[in-house]
Amino acid sequence: MKQLNLSDWKELNNSFPRRLIYHTGIDCGFTVELNYMINAMLYCLAKGYRFQLYSEDANFGTGKGWTEYFAPFCEEVHEAFHHKYNLHRPPIWRRILKNTIRRKSPSFIFWKLKFLLKTLVGHCLAFKAYGKYVRLSQDVAHEPARYYHIPALGISCSYTEAYAMMARMVWQPQPGLQQQIADAKVRLSLPQVYSGIQIRGGDKVQEARLITGRQIIEALHPQEGDCIFALADNYHQLEIVRNEFPQVRIISLCQPDEPGYYHQAFTRLSPQEKKESIIRLLTSLDILFHCRAFVGTITSGPSVFLMKVRADEPCVTAIDCPHDMLPHCLVLSIDDRAAISANRLR
pTM of whole model > 0.90? Predict the structure, then answer.
């Protein structure tokens, strides 16, 4: 796969007269926020908007935003109004009305109207701050059917290929994080050849059926002595699969006190605890970028991100989605992905 040159992208990005300021780290888990940001970068590339970032209040940081963990790749802005008025794009009216009918409550309509008012205020504040109309995060449209023909970058490819190239371009850990990743690999005695999985627990059960570690590991067809790196959030579930597969070496950065990832609980952690948790996640993702084979699920953010970045590799699969359907499924809403997953594992 072609690699995007950051200098070339910066030159093209900075040549666009119109701009969009994207707010990352609003209210979702890290990989979901990262996925949204990459989609916004692709939207700007296709539409000719200069991509800029607001991240100092990111829920995955401690006040420094994106550059706390990764090298800067674009200009960042710091106006405080972005915190309240630069927001994720809401569901379309059809989905709002569907939820209103299903729950027999107008609360979704009121929420949407309140959001539209915030968007209007946000655009007015942006015009006042920058002296011209500026697009915000809620203006980004997800376009997975788009084909990207960008001669300045030497690319002519599908959304899936463009996404993977953009993700790899921005995934440049700061030297300190890069050293922590290297140290973790030494501590784990990570071999050169290993497989990878994700075992998701915690609050994911609110959105989708949870999949057991046994189901995921069996999909790898492990041989005796194989090493599997597990991105896990529930230590008890990790110990269960270690007992179920004693002939396989299963390693992880999951801590003994981790009961499963709950996003609301994560947001209440101290800055230091939050940073330690994010570093473990980023280290795990970096390790999984290089595993021989990976099995994940289409219902979990880290798995979806990894499978989109490595979509062209036949050894990267989802236990709950046929491989030939994977590129299509990965861009669907969580509700649609959860339905496909449940039907597949029925």
Answer: yes
